[in-house]
Amino acid sequence: MNQTRLTLLFAWLMVAVLLWMEWGKEHAAPQTPAAVVPVAQTVPQVVPGATPATVPTASVPGQAAAPATTSASAAPAAVQVETDVLRVQLDGGSFRQVDLLQYPKTLGGNDPVRLFSADNADYYQAQTGWSGQGGSAAPNHAGFVADGGATQFKLAPGANTLDVPFTWVANGVTIHRVVRFTRGSYAVDVRDSVSNAGTTPWQGYVYRQLVRVPPTLQTGMMHPESYSFVGATWSDGKHYARRPFKDYMDGGAVDQTIQGGWLAMPQHHFISVWIPQADQSSKVSLSQNGPADSIAAMGPGFTVQPGQAATTTARLWVGPKDVKALDALGVPGLDRAIDYSRFDMFAYLGTGLFWLLSKIHGLIGNWGWSIIGLVFLLKLALFPLSNAQYKSTAKMRRMQPRMKALQERYGDDKQKLQMAMMELYKTEKINPIGGCLPIIPQTIIFMTLYWVLSESVELRHAPWMGWIHDLTARDPYFVLPILNAAIMFFTQHLTPPAPGMDPTQQKMMKAMPVIFGVILAFLPAGLVLYQVANGALGLLQQTYMLRKYADKASPGTHETKKK
Question: What stretches pass through the bilayer (predicted)?
């Protein structure tokens, strides 16, 4: 296959994929009501080892679920908590509002990213509570009261942890909850201790859930956040599943029992994850309540005899998609929460590419130069394939006069022309499909790296040099897209034209640098930097191969003689 045709094929593949991504976003963007007050609903759920019970599936905008039984006559006051990285508003069982203090909304801005919110249009919360069984009273996520009525907590200088205690008491049963925050961490530990001082057994089970009104996202190439997966994901540590908001319940009900595992709601750069206790079972389910979608882990169930106690713990991650920090939690399969792709092969490739990129960053300390370093390593890994490609290109370029002579000799006799071409390839030991193999890995790597660079919060607001202040945003002055177009133009100049290419195809080829320049102008600067570095190294490699092979007559080369 001629190199020019391969370049054309590769270019149109990239254009087609990018256009398909854009079309998909335009037709799949969820529409969110500005303010809707739905009717509260309850859904029967079954927990392993427990009898059926009714569990509040979600506290939704405009209406909070009331506690089943609580020692306080009024709804508990919200508690304000502040650490070095989080500012949280919670009421014992609901994380009503969370600000990420280390992540400004905009580059150079002062307002932090708000991940959880109680506002109708942006409603998004993590909740945990209990459901009673067999007539036992239990607190749902709105049923806990802060110990001592305290409403302000702040991590003290020099302290590593901050404990916020809550309590629920009814009929001799006490559930003591401690929410622990840790310095420098976005992981919050929630520990519930149930003690029964009554005269009858107490039965109930715990639930953890994430509830969100699907956000309305701006679509288009200038808004890379619209290409990130937004919905619910979950895993039992081995198997991964996900459901986007746009067809949340269209895929059918979910009723999966997991041991440990996790459930999450990811978005561009940030994520919330409930991680139940590793040795306890729960049942994952999805539900819709008015405009809000939720994913919940129900269980385990407990029967606490008089004079006995039971405990259960969970961890909530509410923060960035920080690969290193999430890995440090030691949760099996949690790496898939950073959704590089719905397909395992591309997801694992993306994980590997980011691992390599982060190792390079550990040595260089700059994400932009790390991307260039990644290009060097990938070029080395693909050198045998690309070497064969450029060698084939160089030899094809040298054969252009002889191929033109064959075209003139045989004219419109395509069959004889093809036979003569094949004989020429055989004589000169040219593999006409020598350039095909590199196209496949290059396309796969490019598309996978798009997700890696778009999803990696480590690159958010990360500068490279000069005018590039955010590698996840577009180049503000379009310098990199213009450089890429120039590199493509010079690469085309060195690439021999395909035999018999008609004028229309030639015009298409000449237009490709401009087309790619326009497309890349709206993609993250980090991805364009990768493409520029990859194209520049390819141009240098191709120039060298042309000098090595094209300018030297190989043994046995002879001029084609006309009969």
Answer: 367-388, 430-453, 511-533
